[in-house]
Amino acid sequence: MAVRYDHYQSIGSTVNPKASLRWQPESWLLLRGAVGTGFRAPSLTDLYAPQARAVTGNGTRDPIQCATFDSNNPSCSFQFTTITGGNPNLTPEKSHTFTLGTVLEPVRNLTVDVDSFWIYLKNQIMVGGLNYATILQNAQSATQFANLITRNASGTIVAISQTNANLFKSDVSGLDVDVKYAIPVGDLGTITLLGNGTYFYKYDAQNADGTWTGQLDKGLNSVSNGGIVSRFRYNATAVYDAKTWNASVTRNFQKKYRDAPSSITLVPREVSAYDTIDAQASYVGLQSFNFTVGVRNLFDKVPPYANYASSTNNFVGGYDITYADPLGRFVYARVKYTLH
Asked: What's the predicted TM-score (pTM) here?
């Protein structure tokens, strides 16, 4: 059992308990579980980023003041003022978390960790708030998000808030797997095989109308600012340790996902899986020194093209930098000296 207390100036205080249980019925089997609550206070940037004014697209319609289109009514076709930036009135994100797992050692030097997790997040802080098109989609949405719309005495829109906001909820669950197997090879040293991966059962986000939508493997989603939430990804490493030197090779894999359709053909497409190899070697035979050379993305794998990425300001060109690294092959070397 554990309890954590936090106090944040201007945000308030929070108490978050956690309870965990572990049971080892056999020497090779461990069962474990935990339940707890979480709390994330808004960052200084979330709260106090400078605010700026902009306008909506030309021809934006206010569904409250313009229930039926009238060319003489300015609320039927106007560029309304929007306000972006920080929001000093943000409240903390809160979560409930459950985990259930096991640790297996079926044979000597082999360890397998398997853990399922369930996370329920509310008051999620969305940078950039809610898009004005969603707010003014229809009379129902304009009423639902009336707190984001400032009107004058006659009801005309003065401004629409697109500052950072606490919006909606997320429901996430998945499986983490971690494997380690050490193979002694006598005087030649040890070969160690390592692997870890995550598989999401679901990653659902609440919509503006209260319904829920899955966010996995989608080029455009509402939870990662445009990036990808891959259903499955893993890393696998083989290490050879020969006492005075060691070498390793690592494979990094992320599965393919659904791209946005082409703006020309409107044909759906998939972005291919991203699979890279890293390698590293170190020498520690000289007292106090550690010499290391390595390369990331050994075969210079080019990030896969994505339609949606080129039209999203957070990304470089046609590549999603949250999914793949456009840097390409990167060679490095370092020398470490330890004082005694």
From this structure: 0.81
Distance CA 69, CA 73 (A): 8
DSSP-assigned letters across all residues of 25-90? EETTEEEEEEEEEEEEPPPHHHHHSPPEEEEPPTTB--TTT-SS--TT-GGGSB--EEEEE--TT-
Backbone torsions φ then ψ of 275, nearest 5 degrees: -135, 115
Scanning 263-312, the segments in alpha helix (DSSP H) are: none
Q: Give 309's Cβ-side CA count (13 Å radius).
A: 21
Cα 215 vs. chain centroid, distance in angstroms?
Answer: 11
Spacing of C-alpha 87 from chain mean position: 22
The token pair at 84 is 């972006």
Q: Contact, 164 vs 129, CB < 8 A?
A: yes
Q: Give me the residues of the chain with pLDDT under 50, please.
A: 313-315
Kindly report, residue by residue over 208-244, the tens digit of the pLDDT. Answer: 777 888 889 887 666 655 568 889 999 999 999 998 9
329 is written with which tokens? Answer: 């092959």
CB count in 10 Å sphere of residue 228: 26
Determine how many CB atoms are found less than 10 A away from the CB of residue 76. Answer: 18
DSSP state of 137: S
Q: Which residues of 169-202 are buried (b: 16+ CB within 10 A; e: fewer)?
A: ebbbebeeebbbeeeeeeeebbebebbeebebee
How far apart are the C-alpha atoms of 76 and 304, rounded to whole Å? 42
User: Over the Cα atoms of the chain, what is R_g?
Assistant: 26
Cα separation, 236 vs 241, in Å, equals 16
Select from 198, 197, 204, 199 the least CA-distant residue to 172: 204
